[in-house]
Amino acid sequence: MASLRSLLGSTFRARVPTVTIGTVTTASAQTPAAVTNVGDSTDLVLNFTIPTASGGGGGITTGKAIAMAIVFG
Hints:
- The protein is α+β, with helices and mostly antiparallel strands.
- It has one domain (17-72).
- It is 22% helix and 32% strand.
- The chain is built from two helices and three strands, in the order αβββα.
- Strands 1-3-2 form a three-stranded mixed β-sheet, covered by helices on one side.
- The longest helix has 11 residues, at 62-72.
- It starts with a helix and ends with a helix.
């Protein structure tokens, strides 16, 4: 049985994906946090929508909002 490398040839190299932060937009408190990939599956460009804290304080920080958007989509 032939190996994958022998089938693809000796010049085959796996490509490591890149991740770039695109835009970060602040939205109203009622808007859910969101992350959208505007790149492709190899070169990701992530645009973030982060809602403002409601109630004038005690809200989540931008860093926590970004982490939540990544985890919960």
